[in-house]
Amino acid sequence: MRLLLRRAAFYLFTAWAAITINFFLPRMLKGDPVSAYLQKNQGKVSPEAADALRTLFGLDTGKSLAGQYLDYWKLLFSGDLGRSFSHGLAPVADVIASALPWTVGLVGIATVLSFVLGTTLGTLVGWFRGGRGDVIVPVATFFSAVPYFWMGLIAIAVFATGLGWFPASHAYGKGTTPEFSAQFIGEVIAHGTLPALTVVLASLGGWVLGMRNMMITVLDEDYVTVAQAKGLSRRRVVFAYAARNAVLPQLSSFALALGFIVGGTLVMELVFSYPGVGKLLLDATNAKDYPLMQGLFLVITLTVLVANLLADVAYAALDPRTRQGEV
Amino acid sequence: MTTLELRGLTKRYRVRGSGHMLALDDVDLSIASGRTVALVGQSGSGKSTIAKIITQLERETAGQVLLDGRPVPRRGKGLRAYRQQVRMVFQDPFASLNPYHTVRHHIARPLLLDRVVPREEVDAEVARLLERVRLEPELATRRPHELSGGQRQRIAIARALASRPSLLVADEPVSMLDVSIRLGVLNLLADLQEADGLGVLYITHDLATARHFSDEIVVLHHGRVVERGPSDDVILTPSHEYTRALRDASPDPDRHFGGGRTPDTIGSPS
Amino acid sequence: MFTNRKSITGLVILGLFALLAALADVIAPFGPLEKDYTALKQPPSATHWLGTTHLGEDIFSQIAYGTRGVLLVGLTAGVLATLVAVIVGVSAGFLPGWRGESLSALSNVFLVLPAIPLMIIVASQYDDPSLFLISAVLAITGWAWGARVLRAQTMSLRSRDFVQAARANGEPLWRIITVEMLPNLTAVIASSFVGTVTAAVLGLTTLAFIGVIPITNLNWGTILYWAQQNGAFPEFWWWYVPAGLAIALLGAALSLISFGIDEYVNPRLRSAGERARSRRRLQKKRTKRSPV
């Protein structure tokens, strides 16, 4: 329990650090496109929106840095992340909210799938070490080095354009409106298969190799030999004894890899024109939509932090040593 | 004649969550050159803590460490001079040598640090020290993993002797060696002590060797000194219950087991 | 650690790439931006081994010259990141109390911050970033992992007796860290360096593909960027397949080197395969002999 509290404290600290970095980020960027924008569009921007933008970007030359910092926090707590230039001054929070579920859905499902598949495969390969299964090492190594986006491009070329099995882009068909109908859900699945498959394939190799190495290390431990000598079924030894212990370090590297996974999927969204936060960020960068960029960085970082926390909870639940208090 | 004295030494460790752990409680001890003092006790009695405090690897919570009547300096030239005089041989021959460096490196470092001999003579001195611990000088180019446990421990002794100390702390020097070579290493220590007039603090849990090699035995139990005296007196006529139990715990083919208490059930920390 | 099969394979592949980069002028038949308007979007042929782009540029030459950008940035970023990782990680492991804890917290914060969004935002600020600047941006997001590993290793080393012996002999702190501890950390540092270079190569090509890093730095990602922008999909496979394969091959080579180091560090991995194989061989011999 104490360990979880320490981790929670760490995440709070990191969240604070991320928010503070976010506060300073636009102040370090070159130029001042926000003022220029405000001047150009004076009539269209409401006073509150203009104020919010000024707070976010430090254009309040009247106030001290500390004062601006406090205003920034107040703004965040009221859920106001400014207005997006490239989305007709819609609130940034709303724009992000419409894109976030797509990314979380895609990344979440694909990554969990990849982790489960990869870990299981790695368990088996690790158990049968030295045998024919070892050929998977060079194969998995190669696949884990393939960039996500390139695999996505190939997947589109082969499966979408070439074979026509899946749609090549977007989350649902053009002209369809999002709703809770079977047809819509069917379209989502059809459109999401290729991107998800690409993420799974590209990251599978890493999990397989990691789990294999952990299994090999664990299988050398005496308690596994005892389990076998006791006459337990092979399946029990592999899964309940060896894999159960080998998977723990995998879980913590899973948590750490989340940030990287999110980064990789961002680019994938570009390739598939998938309407997630990644594509949003790239479009915002090209359009120099600073409020959106700043809001996105914050949201992405906080999402990764939450995911990390969940992974830590899972780890604590699985590792009995943490339950005793001191590790 | 050099004397190291521990007066009222107390060491308290802070344990996360549950407060404090008293490792040493008001310990008095004194080692003089030319004499061997054995510090005897079971695991957790505080023996290694004393060794760490003497070598300044840890700091005492209360009490004093005095060399020739003067407190040990905390830094600077005084501390360096102290370190030159008081050396330690560690328990684990596999861990106390750096796997990356050669034997020569281990022995030459203290020679260079304390400027025992001029730079040109370091190699000759290394060879001489190796011979003193009954090893061939050719071993100087080897690395620890190429040597046996007994050889490594002898190198640890050579390293300790390099600075020409007057006092040696031997923390269970033979506990991790094969039984068959223990006597050889202990005899070496005894010979070196006699030749150099060293004062030795021999830390062990083995009463037999303690009696054989030392003039005085100090018995430590849960951080407190429960008995002390000349070796033969302590072994043959122990006055404290714990010492008696320790002595009785050594297997004696002529004695029947059963009855009496085992050492680890006696007493408990306050 | 460099003599097992995996490492050697990886090093050979890496060496080939290095040769390609160094001798690009000699190996490549054309300049990377040399345009041949008579041969637009041509499939591979005798003159153009990997075909041409929409402007008649030779793709093989582009890949050859692009190797330079990839290797230079990758290695520079790797060196920078590893340097920071060693300084922060070893200090975090060695210094007791709040000093070590705060350094550890610092590396954990950087570890959790998502790298690519940060890189996108920072890189988009500069119109013509120098090689060094790009490497620095990649290094800032990549050092934290190595620091964490090094901290764990340093902490376990710190309590080893030979470090205590050095302290008891009065060795100065800087010598303890550099002479006594660092040599025992070389394997971990090497592994971390290789990992960082891999991440830097992937990061660089990804950023180039997005178009965030300007085309003045030619690397394999830039080739893919042009391919995507100029309608190479899906028919003109020779334009986009080789570049991705090159990235994967280089990444695989670096990973192999890293595995080789891992096996050296963890002897269980080394001997596990050998034991299982010899067990199988023995079983085959036994079953062959028994008459049934």
From TrEMBL, chain A:
It is found in: Cell membrane; Membrane. The keyword Transmembrane helix applies. Signal peptide: none annotated. The chain crosses the membrane at residues 9-29, 102-128, 135-168, 188-209, 254-275, 295-318. Its main location: membrane. Residues 100-311 form the ABC transmembrane type-1 domain. It comes from the Bacteria. Pfam families: BPD_transp_1. SUPFAM superfamilies: MetI-like. PROSITE patterns: ABC_TM1. This is ABC transporter permease. It comes from Myceligenerans indicum. The lineage of its organism: Bacteria, Bacillati, Actinomycetota, Actinomycetes, Micrococcales.
From TrEMBL, chain B:
Pfam families: ABC_tran (PF00005). PROSITE patterns: ABC_TRANSPORTER_1, ABC_TRANSPORTER_2. One of its GO terms (molecular function) is ATP binding. SMART domains: AAA. Residues 246-270 are annotated as: Disordered. Keywords: ATP-binding, Nucleotide-binding, Transport. This is ABC transporter ATP-binding protein. It comes from Myceligenerans indicum.
TrEMBL record, chain C:
Residues 71-258 form the ABC transmembrane type-1 domain. The chain crosses the membrane at residues 70-94, 106-126, 132-150, 185-216, 236-261. It is a multi-pass membrane protein. It is found in: Cell membrane. InterPro entries: BP-dependent_transpt_permease (IPR050366), MetI-like (IPR000515), MetI-like_sf (IPR035906), OppC_N (IPR025966). It holds the Pfam family BPD_transp_1. The keyword Cell membrane applies. Signal peptide: none annotated. Keywords: Cell membrane, Membrane, Transmembrane, Transmembrane helix, Transport. PANTHER family: D,D-DIPEPTIDE TRANSPORT SYSTEM PERMEASE PROTEIN DDPC-RELATED, OLIGOPEPTIDE TRANSPORT SYSTEM PERMEASE PROTEIN APPC. Belongs to the binding-protein-dependent transport system permease family. This is ABC transporter permease. It comes from Myceligenerans indicum.
